[in-house]
Amino acid sequence: MKGKLIDRIVMAIVVSALSSAGVSIAAEGDQRPREEQKADQHGAPREEKPRPPQKAQNAPQKQKQEQQQRERAQEKAAQEQKDQRVRQQQQQQERVERRSEQVQQQQRVQQQKQEKVQQQRQQQRLSQQRQQELIRQQQQRVEQYRRDLEQQERAARERAAQLERQKRMAQYRFQQDYLERVRRQQIYLRDHRFDYDHDPYFYTAPIYRYNRGGRYYDVNEYGAKTLREAVNYGYEEGFRAGKADRDDQWSSNYEDSYAYRDANYGYSGYYVSRDDYNYYFREGFRRGYEDGYNSRYRYGRLADGNPSILETILSQVLGFQSIR
What we know:
Blueprint: H1 2-42, H2 55-123, H3 128-165, H4 169-191, E1 208-212, E2 215-219, H5 221-247, H6 258-262, H7 274-293, E3 300-303, E4 306-309, H8 311-318, E5 321-322
Antiparallel strand pairs: 1-2, 1-5, 3-4
Helix pairs in contact: 3-4, 4-5, 5-7
């Protein structure tokens, strides 16, 4: 019994010794890595992991920068478009100015040519004999025209009475206005003293040829101007006469108008025969009457409040041919 007890004591002592030794070894094992770690910290630098970007902090600032960049880009694009439009406008203006200069230059050249031609023609003065012949014809025309004006007064009064009976008051007023214009024309012719010796019509050579009734006639620039006036005056008076018949609700008939039959308004007795003047006055009157009656401007236009025949129609009616 005593021996067993001793063995147990010895075993307990051995076990206790072994347990203490194991704890010391474990402690040394744990301390060694810590010392190595500490040595490593004081020795070579340890790699650090990258820090995540501070998104929450930098996002508003980045958005602001991007917005500013977009605004600058938009402003730059708008400015470039504006500059481009300005350049295009300048280029267009330059083209227009160059074209205008070219047209003006062409017009100046053409005008110079025409003036030169007219000067050359005017230098080709008519002979003294031809001048005297024209003066005699002119004096006879003026005297005959003055006598005819007195006879036409009676016809005008009869026509006015007829219009009153027909109750065509608009046409009656038009005719009275027309007669008043003719009377003022008579007074001018009666008081005007014509200078035959110094009027260029009597020594200026013809520059145009026109056809009337199958016959050709030559005329200088002064005679041509008178015939143009005949067509223009005819159109104006015809327009008023046509409008008067429309206002009276009368049927269209330009030949029924006293002004058409008379066809002398604007004629002074000079430069062209009365037959020629009457013919072209009626050509203008007929076209003006149609426009006035139908309330339109097919053959003319309104200029300064007065009806005026179109230049294209005027050229067609006269049909002047330049004499080369």
